[in-house]
Amino acid sequence: MNPVYIEDLDRHVGSDVWIHGWLYHKRSSGKIRFIVVRDGTGLVQGVVTPEAGPVAFELADSLPQEASLRVGGTVRAEPRAPGGFELAVSRLEPVHVPTTPFPIGPKEHGTGFLMDHRHLWIRSRRQTPILRIRDAVLWAIRSFFHERGFVATEAPVLVGTSVEGTTTLFPLDYFGNPAYLSQSGQLYLEATCAALGKVYWIGPVFRAEKSKTRRHLIEFWMAEAEQAFLDHEGNLALQEDLVRYVVEAVAAERQRELAELERDPALLLREVGERFARITYREAVALVRDSGVEMEFGDDFGAPAEDALSRHFGHPVFVERFPAAIKPFYMKRDPAQPDLALCADLIAPEGYGEIIGGSQRVDTEEELLAQLREANLPPEPYQWYADLRRWGSVPHSGFGLGVERTVQWLTGTAHIRETIPFPRTLDRLYP
Ligand code: 4AD
Hints:
Blueprint: E1 16-29, E2 32-38, E3 43-48, H1 54-62, E4 68-77, E5 85-96, H2 111-116, H3 118-121, H4 127-147, E6 151-152, E7 158-159, E8 170-174, E9 177-181, H5 186-196, E10 198-206, E11 219-228, H6 232-253, H7 255-260, H8 265-271, E12 277-280, H9 281-290, H10 303-312, E13 317-320, E14 333-334, E15 337-341, E16 343-348, E17 353-360, H11 365-374, H12 383-387, E18 396-402, H13 403-411
Parallel strand pairs: 3-5, 6-10, 12-13
Antiparallel strand pairs: 1-2, 1-4, 2-3, 4-5, 7-9, 8-9, 10-11, 11-18, 13-16, 14-15, 16-17, 17-18
Helix pairs in contact: 4-6, 4-13, 6-8, 9-10
The protein binds 4-amino-1,4-dioxobutan-2-aminium adenosine-5'-monophosphate.
The site of 4-amino-1,4-dioxobutan-2-aminium adenosine-5'-monophosphate has 22 residues, from β11, β17, β18 and α13.
């Protein structure tokens, strides 16, 4: 008989089924044994009574946590059981029985210990729904762009130049020449968008961030889009549509996981239900200062400033038109105020901080060369990028959405390290 998945049990009430999985937890009460089995799609409680026979009954007593097993029985609706169903067990077959205790138990473990055991920690009750929501976020991003006619394309991860400033570059030796891990695929997407019109990619990017915050990873995934003939205004509208689409998809497809994380989908839907707020950098600085956080015009938003902004609005807010001096070389200047860039960061609500950075791009070779000079970057490695402004340059814009920051917000997770299977942080490369 083929096994069924726990997430599909509602379709098998009254039937005799097999479930293949791992023993998550067990307890006994008088003559009854309860085994909680997980299979990656959810958890189900199996009820083992003496009628299941001496072998199954003994196994329900002796199998240790994380033993892998096949369990068979009849599915019953049980509103009091987690997930709403339980299995009246009639068969139990061990697949692998561990001989040493599983290191992660129900008791509290320190973060260092859990991170050292990340390869096992991902099996636990909070971690699996987070990773399943991450999957839904990635799918929603792809289907949004696909529906809109964007072409999925790729950017290289090994590159010869910086995009987002030289201080967070990861240097490599490329057969005797300097190379780096990519900080963003943007420059390459600008080239492919001139070939394909509108493009996106989702890929890993790297920042040698010396900061240890609950919002920074060294390696993270970015969903980046670039569209020809799109201006700053159109760019913000596209971002707003994407974020709303992703939230609606997650709220619809991952209800059970959100409930397991005690995250209310109605709250998330309310947050994206209205037009996103929009303020200028100048207004944002005033707002941050009013909230009691020290900040000068021309400063980047530090964690406390971003926190203040993020908590102020009940929905995402675009902060636009930053001073060009604190933004990368590729942003187009606002023609009306040339010391400002035509850019915006999108700040998620509830203190989850910036989830998107985007801008209209500089579109003449002269301006690009001047801006490279201002940023103290040599023009030679960017010759190919300048070429894009030489033949058929068009207004174009794009953005990058941080996948883990988005998952962090949607799952209500305090630290970003739980939003990716194997986080890379300042002090961690293991496991
Ligand atoms: O604002 P950023 O640096 O923008 C870019 O890299 C642009 N080149 C993207 C583009 O226009 N195509 O990064 C974009 C997003 C941020 O808003 C944030 O969500 C996320 O990437 N991000 C990080 N996430 C985790 N850890 C880090 N160290 C991050 N740095 C940025």
